[in-house]
Write a structure and sequence with these properties.
Strand content: 15-25%
Helix content: 25-40%
Number of strands: 8
Radius of gyration: 23 Å
Low-confidence stretches: 86-91
Distance between the termini: 58 Å
Largest sheet: 6 strands, antiparallel, barrel
Mean pLDDT: 87
Shape: elongated
Strand order of the largest sheet: 1-2-7-4-3-8
């Protein structure tokens, strides 16, 4: 098996699609197309430039400018080591350890970049279910750091829709907990929302936006509703809101 290690000297450009870094090969031979890992994060080496010329590889002791894929590039820091790995898995331990640290690391990744990376990985059907669940928890942690708790139900709803409800004690895939969380965010009753919906074009903009937010959040209850017992009062509450939803703007 081929082997290579790269040490980041500088990140010159980065966005959610990838970026350009100056790196030093500190072991083995780095080749275009290889997949590298930095802790629990992965990136693919798409291009190598040395002395203004594109090359296919470079070996230990040499420096090159490389193009890497994915939002992970924005999380890299000077001195970080990237290790070649086969492109068939994701290790998350380092990132999960970072999220658990208090106080946070000095080299804190941008939370929006972290959210994008985690959401894409959560939705990657080629990954094992357990790995997707771990990425979902990273996405939830990123939303907390961004101060956007109102987006958490969308992550929970995605997990229940595509991975099913979890075992008892799994708060991330609990259909009842998701429904309670969604309904608790509404300031109106179903009857009040229905009354406003009938004249929504005459309402002030903040009231229209509130009705639209309710409509969007109600969509999160759809994958959870089949798992509620028919005699559960929560099911009746969800059904009452579901009847109102089509009329919301």
């Amino acid at each position: 098996m081929s082997f290579a290690e790269l040490q980041v000297c500088a990140v010159e450009a980065a966005d959610v699609t990838g970026g350009v870094c100056v790196v030093r090969c500190i072991g083995g031979v780095a080749r275009s197309g290889q997949v590298f890992a930095a802790g629990g994060l992965r990136t693919r080496l798409r291009g190598i430039e040395r002395y203004g010329r594109t090359v296919g590889s470079f070996d230990a002791g040499h420096v090159a400018k490389v193009r890497l894929t994915g939002p992970v590039v924005a999380l890299l820091a000077s001195g970080q080591v990237l290790t070649y790995v086969p492109p068939d898995g994701h290790a998350l331990a380092d990132l999960e350890d970072w999220l658990a640290t208090e106080p946070p690391l000095l080299e804190e990744p941008h939370s929006e970049t972290l959210r994008c990376l985690a959401t894409v990985s959560m939705q990657n059907e080629e990954l094992p279910e357990g790995v997707r669940l771990r990425w979902a928890r990273v996405a939830l942690a990123a939303l907390d750091r961004l101060g956007r708790p109102e987006e958490r139900p969308y992550v929970h709803a995605y997990l229940i829709r595509y991975l099913g409800p979890g075992e008892d004690g799994d708060p991330d895939r609990d259909p009842a907990a998701l429904c309670r969380d969604v309904l608790a965010r509404f300031e109106l009753t179903p009857a009040q929302a229905a009354a406003q919906a009938r004249v929504w074009r005459d309402l002030p903009r903040p009231d229209i936006l509130r009705l639209r937010r309710i409509k969007n959040l109600l969509g999160c209850t759809e994958p959870a509703r089949p798992y509620l017992a028919a005699t559960d009062p929560l099911a009746a509450a969800v059904d009452a809101w579901a009847a109102v939803r089509p009329g919301l703007p």
